[in-house]
Design goal:
heterodimer, A: 139 residues, mainly beta, Cathepsin D, subunit A, domain 1, six-stranded mixed barrel, three-stranded antiparallel sheet, 11 strands, B: 84 residues, alpha+beta, 44% helix, 20% strand
Chain lengths: 139, 84
C-alpha cells in the first residue's frame, strides 16, 4: 500500500516533519523533529542530540568527503518514520517506518534534526513544482 | 552495555576493516560486515540484518557493522555540519 505526504516548501529549503526510531528489534522510542530533504547527500544523518535522546549505540565508522578532505564520522542504525496524510475524519495514522538505515552523526549546530539523504529518498517518489508544492510517496 | 567498551570495539574493528577492505571489495561490495574482536563474523545485504544478527549472537551487544565500500559519504553543501 502506498502512502504520501503533500506540503508546501519554504523559499530556500525543502523541510518536512519526520520521526527517528531506534533500530529493530528494539522498542519504538521515537524522536519527532524536522528534516531537510537533500538530494545532494548520499546518506541520511541525525544530529548528536537526536542520537543522545534515543540513546543510540555507535555501530561503525565511515569516511565523509568534503572540501577540507576526508574525515571519519560515527555511524548509527535507526529507522526513519514519515506520517502519511489522512482525511480529517480518519483516526491518527502511525508513521510509516522505512527499514533500518546506517546513518551518520551531524554536529548539533545543524539547525534542523535530520538530513534526509538519497539512501531513503531513493525509496520514494518525490515531486516539486514551481509554486512550491511538494509531494513524497512511499511504501 | 558498556558504551566505552563499545566505542573501543568500533575503533578496533574499523582499523582491522580498513586493512581488509581491498580484499573484500571484489566479492562483498555494498554489503554490511558484522564484526567482533577485529574479525568479520558475516556479511549481510542490509544493515538491519547485520544488526539483528549481532544482537542475537552477542548478548553483551558489543559488535560493529561496516559497509563494504571505498566511497566516502558525500553531503555536498552540508559536509561542514558533520565534521568535528
Amino acid at each position: 500500500m502506498s502512502h504520501c505526504i503533500e506540503w508546501r516548501r519554504d523559499r530556500r529549503h525543502i523541510v518536512l516533519p519526520i520521526c527517528i526510531v531506534r533500530p529493530a528489534p528494539s522498542d519504538l522510542t521515537a524522536y519527532s523533529g524536522t528534516a531537510l530533504l537533500d538530494t545532494g547527500a548520499t546518506a541520511t544523518g541525525i544530529t548528536a542530540r537526536v542520537a543522545r535522546h534515543l540513546d543510540l549505540t555507535p555501530r561503525g565508522k565511515r569516511l565523509l568527503g568534503s572540501a577540507r578532505g576526508e574525515e571519519q564520522v560515527q555511524r548509527y542504525l535507526f529507522r526513519v518514520g514519515l506520517t502519511p496524510d489522512r482525511d480529517p475524519d480518519e483516526p491518527p495514522a502511525f508513521p510509516f517506518l522505512f527499514e533500518d538505515v546506517e546513518g551518520f552523526e551531524l554536529r548539533d549546530n545543524f539547525r534542523l534534526d535530520v538530513l534526509l539523504g538519497m539512501d531513503v529518498l531513493s525509496q520514494c517518489d518525490f515531486q516539486m513544482d514551481r509554486r512550491g508544492r511538494c509531494r513524497l510517496a512511499f511504501g | 552495555m558498556d558504551k566505552a567498551q563499545q566505542e573501543r570495539e568500533v575503533d578496533r574493528n574499523y582499523d582491522a576493516f580498513v586493512r581488509l577492505l581491498g580484499s573484500l571489495l571484489p566479492e562483498h561490495r555494498n554489503q554490511f560486515a558484522l564484526m567482533r574482536d577485529a574479525q568479520i563474523i558475516g556479511f549481510f545485504n542490509k544493515p538491519g540484518e547485520a544488526n539483528r544478527a549481532g544482537v542475537e549472537r552477542f548478548p553483551d551487544q558489543i559488535f560493529s557493522i561496516q559497509e563494504v565500500t571505498d566511497e566516502p559519504i558525500d553531503l555536498g553543501f552540508w559536509s561542514h555540519v558533520a565534521l568535528h
